[in-house]
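If you are new to this repository, start here. Below is one unmodified record pulled from the training split, so you can see the exact layout before writing a loader.
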Amino acid sequence: MTSCPFLRKLSPTVIQRDIQQLIQLIPRCPFARRLFDGTPLSSPRMYSDVAMERQSDESSVCNICIPNTCALFAGWQKSIVARKSLQPTTDITIKNADPGHSQTIDSVRNDGDSCLGFNYNKFFVSEVERKKRDSTYRVFRRILRDASEFPFADDYSSGMKRRVAVWCSNDYLGMSWHPKVQEAAISTIRKHGVGSGGTRNISGNSLLHESLEAELSDLHGKPAALVFTSCYVANEAVLHTLGTRIPELTIISDAGNHASMIHGIRTSRCPKIIYRHNDVKHLTSLLANIPKDSPKLIAFETVHSMSGDVCPLKNLLDVAEANKALSFVDEVHAVGLYGAHGAGVAERDGQMHRIDAITGTLGKAFASIGGYLAGSSELVDMIRSYASGFIFTTSLPPHSLAAAQTSIQILKSSEGKELRAEHQKRVSIVRQSLRQAGLPVIEAPSHIIPLHVGEAKLCTKISEELLSEHNIYVQSINYPTVDIGDERLRIAPTPHHTDKLTEELVDSLCMVWKKYNLPLNVESARKITRQAG
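And here is the target side for that same chain:
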């Protein structure tokens, strides 16, 4: 059988994924037209036929196809490769290479009789340039925080050392510089070294891991907990695993959910439904179309990181229970900050016992690194046994575990209650000061204070000027973290920001606002508030 040199290079997976693009290109190739003659283009048989053709006698090739002018390849390159970098390739083997010669990606060409080499670096550059043109290219500030003087840091972004006040850190309570937390990390390093030595299954499990998990299960009032390398990994791994393991599960996801949750749901390939952000009525109406005996999971966050929104937790759990759905609740921006013991919004609202799966982070209010899941023993054991994101990675190092557990214990205590009270007091002072100055505060009931800007390039300029001219670090938040048109500055006060620092922040913001002719009045702030709602 004659075989198409282009189709021969495609894996069945690629053919199945992009079958619609191939279908549109078939009429342009006389060989492909004959190959599919008589087969309905929408027929499920097409995929298997093409896959069989790919495995046919490769000694016979299309005598119509001319290298560099293949109609299928040219169309594919235009519609798929240029957009997604999915140009088909064969395995590349470099033989007899000079040990002293280093080949770049650009110097390696495809081993195909009808395919040109793809200029990878040119593609990478073009993708980055696209980000720069729309002002969504991220420039990392070179910041070294000072553990002896929180919330200050030394900024090296301009090449010179500059002392700055940090107003955008997720170290919400300053626990990273707490003497007991620091000593826990230091003493643990001296005893156990700086690394864990392996995965949890192969030499990387320790009493410290299990002790921290017991601390977390106690914090959330759950029978068990499981520690991950980050809460991004925890969210992605748990949702992916549940979506792939529970038969016919449908996941109903809040439109404002974090990228980690979205990615876990997407890669599970289970049916998903998205409800409007924090909209209980919309959620209820969507669930009405799903049989009550069908497996369901509702996934949402309590505190949303960029808007400062807080979900209607009780109402959402009411809906979950009424529809016999599992509840998956992300408390990343709430743990340590809310509730009598710092367990989050669920503890504050008396709803912890109703939640099936709680995820949280050790890297924000708890000031270490890592993420976790808390839930039933059965759930945790299943995730421990099946989640690739947990199984196939080196476990957290001993000092991070010790620091996190010490921080949790402090925040459970009366000292933690005092810190949370001071934190809420400072948040209120900063929000009120910004509002009184006429700055466009997006109102929210949490500790996060967004200032609306609405244009990416301008938002970045404001952030840069605050840093370079006023020694204040507030990060600009642009797409894709927020929608285009919703660009903002995100301010995160801590208990350690003083009245003087607050006054300097407000004065500096007002100066920059005036410089760029931005509205600075109470009516403007009210307008933004209504839009955000």
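Two things worth knowing about this chain: The chain is about 40% helix and 10% strand. The longest strand covers residues 296-301.
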